[in-house]
Amino acid sequence: MLYRFDDYIVDASRYELRQGEHVITIEPKVFQVLLYLLEHRGRVVSKDELLDACWAETFVSPAALTQCLTRLRKAVVSRDESRPLIKTLHRQGYRFMAEVETVSNADEQDVSEAKPAERPGPAPLPHLTEMTAALNTASDTSGSDVQSALNSERRQLTVLRCDLAYYDRLIEHLDAEDMHVVLQAYHRACLAVIERFGGHVAVSREAEVAVFFGYPQAHEDDVQRAIRAGLQMVATLRGHVALPTQVPETDFALRVGIHTGLVIVETGEGKGAQLPLVVGETPTIAASVRDLAPPDTVAISQATAALSAGYFECRLVRSQTHTEHREPLAVYEVRGENAIRTRLEVEGVRGLTPFVGREAELALLAERWEEVQDGRGQVVIVRGDAGIGKSRLVRMLKEQVTIQPHMWLECRCSAYHQNTAFYPVCELLRQLLGAPSEYAVDDTLSTIEALLQRYRLPVDEAVPLLAGLLALRVPEDRYAPLMMTPQQQRQQTLEGLLTLLLLRAAEHPVYFVVEDLQWADPSTLEFLDLFMIQVPAAAILAVLTCRPSFEPPWGQRASVVSLVLNRLTRPQMARMIVQVSRGKALPPEVTEQLMEKTDGVPLFVEESTRMLLESDQLVERDGVYEMAATLTQFEIPATLHDSLMARLDRLGTAKEIAQWCAALGRECTHEVLASITPFDEATLQQGLRQLVDADLVFQHGFLPQARYRFKHMLVRDAAYESILKRRRQGIHQQIAEVLEAQFPDTAEAEPGLVAHHYAEAGRHEQAIIYWQRAGQLAYQRSANQEAIGYLTTGLELLLSQPENAKRARQELDIQMALGAALMAAKGPAAPEIEHAYTRARELCRQIGEPPQLFPVLRGLWNCYLQQGALQTTHELAEQLLDLAQ
User: Which residues lie within the region annotated Disordered (predicted)?
Assistant: First the structure.
């Protein structure tokens, strides 16, 4: 079959796109999307339908479709810029807008004489029949099915797959018993590393190990954890496995492949399953990356490399088409970790976004620093959620105090070392010594001795203590063993380190920073408790950062101030968005939606704005950004997936309650929740208390009239998007039906809410009815813009339905209501009013001149009168007179 539009020809049999005599090369998946839109050009094709049709055998994120459409729009460009070939309909999908001629392959030579063919009605592809039936069945799920536990969910997963590169050679050299011993040691060594970095072993058999990072517990740095685990496994494997003498050491090599992507995870709870079922191409791609990795290396995919950029030194190994993937697979070898450890340091290399807001907080820190100049020590605890700007605030003060003599000491706690005693304190000691970690043992010992002698401290006793803190072996011929109990040795170590810090502060004021106290080990907290007693009389400004959940063990002290970082204000968010876009203004509606989604969290603002700028929804013209298509719903940036899911995974069973809340929207009431969820009242209340205590939702009012609101919209989106599409549809249907049956006052007062839930449930007939009611109610309240929005949404949904008499009558009612709302909002001469009433007149003729014809003609008459089209106005007046008589 050939399709012809504008000056393009699409040959479905040859998988070829031509413009005149020129063949345009596009990727197979892009061609598949184009072909599907052409085959269903008579209607709106939803995003989910396109994903099901073009990625039937695999699960991919909506971002894959967005990228395909971006490439498609670059390949086929309309001759009329005001009339795009592919139109994006907000929250509905896509529609091919150009006039298309179709020709069978037998008539290919006569394509120039082809006549326009009738547009086929919507019909599913043959291979989608069963899937469509299953989806319809899911939409018909009963309340009991919807209320069953949500055992499957959608989430981002980083998969590590490793094996022995020369496994076949090992089998040749070793008998079965020796091979069994080697494999046991190999698996023990791998599992020890995996456990340290929080991975979940999915497969561990013979030479292969597969590990999930991001399930069942997500961490905000799962990608980095996976890569660090791979590097550690490669570095330590040979040291943990004793090979028989007949095996060359070069034959024992590990290769690791890592890929990150969206999957569906089914835990199989209640079915006796031991391991989760993972559906999606992520594990397969990870295996492909591993197969392309050189021996004794860690290789990562392009997606994983993008999410870990800056933290590791990587080089492109190869980019080739693999047998299981149509698109080239880029593979990067990880050469090692960079010195950069934090997101702020990574951004510092790329170029930090200019600092926005926080003037009051920065002024408070500056005042405390002035107090320190006079010898009055201060402690400031900076609290805030991840991404709120704690580290950036510390950095800004550091830049301000550089002109004054001082000593800067900075260390941070680590999620990987919460059980490693004195982990950040060791870094503090290295900075006090001026001895980097790569110093030789003798050099470090000499530095310790020199520092102790400088301050006239007992060398023989203090050197073994401080050397032990850095895990250095002290020569027995130089220092006698310490005759102390372990508790005495610990106390002396703490006091010795604190003494060095106080002596340094006596020379110059010290700016002492400890980041991420929520991950501090108990020994570090004990050191800080001792430090708090001494700090008021020392020239030290200690700035300690932590998440809101951290409770300091030292209680209230006069010298300690708690500083809570709140969200940015709307003007500050607007400034930051412009700065991320490098001074180029975004359309007001885009800026508004960005502010609504990101809730004033700087990290959310920055990453969401960047993602939008990299999408196909905006185009730069004359130094400003304009919308290239109707603004669709924002997706969660891949860089934030793990962080958001980590917050939800920590909730345990309350996570499911968060998902029900998310389905209701950003806000919900306790009364409605109790009516739709499968939980008893005690379980529901306990789960909601967990959400409030975790600072994920706010509670307004008291039970049973309490209302709940997600603190961050992106957290709500993460909870909602983790629900599978079919389950989500069932939940929305149940919500709509409960609102109708048990909350009729709400359904009557907020028909748009019921319409939304029916639309998300795939119940379009009911949704259209409620969109129309919502539009009429808004018009009665003089909320004309809202009325236009509701009616337009209902109309777009209606036009995706099969053409028949019922649809024509419904469209007539909506077009008339839309015309009235447009007239009130834009004045009677607006061209949109002419379009609405003209379409309504056509529908009246199709139906057979119903009673609505008179008000339709009157609306047209009024429009043309205001436009000054007097001849047309006169003709319409004659028709109105005939109808009146």
Answer: 105-127
Per-residue pLDDT, averaged over 63-82, amounts to 76
pLDDT of residue 64: 66
What's the rounded Cα separation, in Å, for the pair 594 and 617?
13
472: nearest Cα among 504, 433, 507: 433
What are the C-alpha distances in Å from 199 to residues 19, 208, 278, 796? 51, 15, 15, 46
Decide: 203 and 209 in contact? Cβ < 8 Å. yes
Class of domain 358-564: alpha beta
Mean pLDDT of 350-365: 84
Residue 58 has pLDDT above 60, yes or no: no
In CATH, what is the architecture of 152-344? Answer: 2-Layer Sandwich (3.30)
Classify the C-alpha dihedral 581-639-360-589 as positive or negative.
positive
Distance of alpha carbon 159 from alpha carbon 210, whole angstroms: 7
Tokens 């082809």 found at? 114
Strands 560-564, 540-546: pairing is unpaired
Q: Among 39, 19, 34, 17, which residue's Cα sits nearest to residue 68?
A: 34
Taking the C-alpha atoms of residue 288 and residue 285, their distance in angstroms, rounded to an integer, is: 5
Burial per residue of 694-723, b for 16 or more beta-carbon CB atoms within 10 angstroms, e otherwise: bebbeeeeeeeebebebbbbbbbbbbbbbb
Contact of 529 with 554, CB cutoff 8 Å = yes
What does pTM read for this prediction?
Answer: 0.71
- Cα torsion through 499, 504, 508, 512, rounded to 10: -80
Cβ atoms 669, 700 nearer than 8 A: no
Q: Which has more pLDDT, 632 or 307?
A: 307
Give kind and range of the element (H or E) at residue 583: none
- With 50 as the cut, is the pLDDT of residue 394 above it? yes
Burial of 56 (0-12, 13-18, 19+ CB in 10 A): exposed
Give the model's pLDDT for residue 133.
33
CATH 1.10.10.10 describes domain 2-133: yes
Tell me, yes or no, if the two domains 152-344 and 358-564 fold the same way: no
DSSP structural state of residue 385: -
Q: Looking at residues 612-632, what average pLDDT do you find?
A: 77
In 3D, which of 561, 453, 555, 430 has the Cα closest to residue 501? Answer: 430
Return the bridge partners of 546, or none: 383
736 pLDDT band, cuts 50/70/90, is very high
CA distance 303 to 285: 11
Q: Are strands 22-24 and 16-19 parallel, antiparallel or unpaired?
A: antiparallel
**Angle between helix 784-799 and helix 751-760 axes, rounded to 10 deg:** 30
Is a pLDDT exceeding 70 seen at residue 336?
Answer: yes
Task: Report the pLDDT value the prediction gives residue 60, as an integer from 0 to 100.
Answer: 55
Sorted by where each begins, the domain ranges of the chain are 2-133, 152-344, 358-564, 570-625
pLDDT of residue 777: 94
Q: How far apart are CA 172 and CA 188, in angstroms?
A: 23
Helix (H), strand (E) at residue 336: strand 328-337
Mean pLDDT of the 525-548 span: 92
Residue 804 makes CB contacts below 8 A (sequence gap 6+) with none
Nearest to 215 by CA among 262, 150, 285, 258: 262
Mean of the per-residue pLDDT values for the chain? 83
* Bridge partners, residue 624, by sequence: 621
Measured between its terminal Cα atoms, the distance across the chain in Å is 55
Task: Provide the token pair at 664.
Answer: 């209701």
- Would the pLDDT of 127 be above 60? no
- Taking only the tens place, the pLDDT of each residue in 220-278 is 899 999 999 999 999 888 777 777 776 777 778 899 999 999 998 876 544 444 567 88
What CA–CA distance (Å, rounded) separates 146 from 138? 9
Q: How many CA atoms lie within 13 A of 829 on its CB side?
A: 6
